[in-house]
């Protein structure tokens, strides 16, 4: 796919969907941000901390398909409480293997303004066919979490600087809560990932959480603030900010805690897979390369697409992601076997046996 066609698709979708919604929305910038916005970086382990107890998931609408997989909706209370009650219940969908056949789980987050998990499933299907349970998680203010009278994502990323900070923080906390449920209740290894805004959320979770065995970023980058000032798609939000005297340096400072490129990952380099679009005007190649540099150059795959047009490459991307996850699981298994065979482990086992006697 060439650059011109990729940008045509991105701009067409933005004009026909995103811009019409933003034009209908009322201004969201609040002038008190100059006094209330954070001016100094915080400790991410504190900013994104969660309780040790996993959430209680409630499953509904369970359906078993002919291939043996089970599809179900689930929900649980968010650890973060926003002013909108609808947003405080986390909603998701699960694509589960037959009982006892799943070796691991994958948690995926969708992109900005998405009101369905369908596009995300195109990328996840190879992993599901490879035997992984897949959980799709709705970001704050999206889908069922959108307050009455708003469209999916309207309050999630906007010119309201402070609300965007809290929304993003809530998304990371929700993802970490889901990690806790899979690892503590299901007792399975878990990988995390996301697309676009969901990728940024997953990346920030990877800054503070070392439990996932893998992290997959589909069109994520180093700086969230950069996407507002890069290209056509966020021009209306950008216009509102600029009219209020907000410059890129201001937004970079205020959204410092939302930008993965400002931090080192808690996961090893081998556990991270980055996917970038060569013609992406939103999460630009420069933004992706900055993340790649900041995160010690993990594996990076490029595809000849823009942002929305990444959907044309869902199958090959999904296959590469599935291979990556299976390889990570193999490496994890070999590491555990090596640890079990080590002299120190054997000595600890013998000591524990004697104590038991």
UniProtKB/TrEMBL annotation:
The keyword Transmembrane applies. One of its GO terms (molecular function) is hydrolase activity. Keywords: Hydrolase, Membrane, Transmembrane, Transmembrane helix. The chain crosses the membrane at residues 190-208, 214-234. The keyword Ion transport does not apply. PANTHER family: PROTEIN ABHD18. This is Abhydrolase domain-containing 18. It comes from Bellilinea caldifistulae.
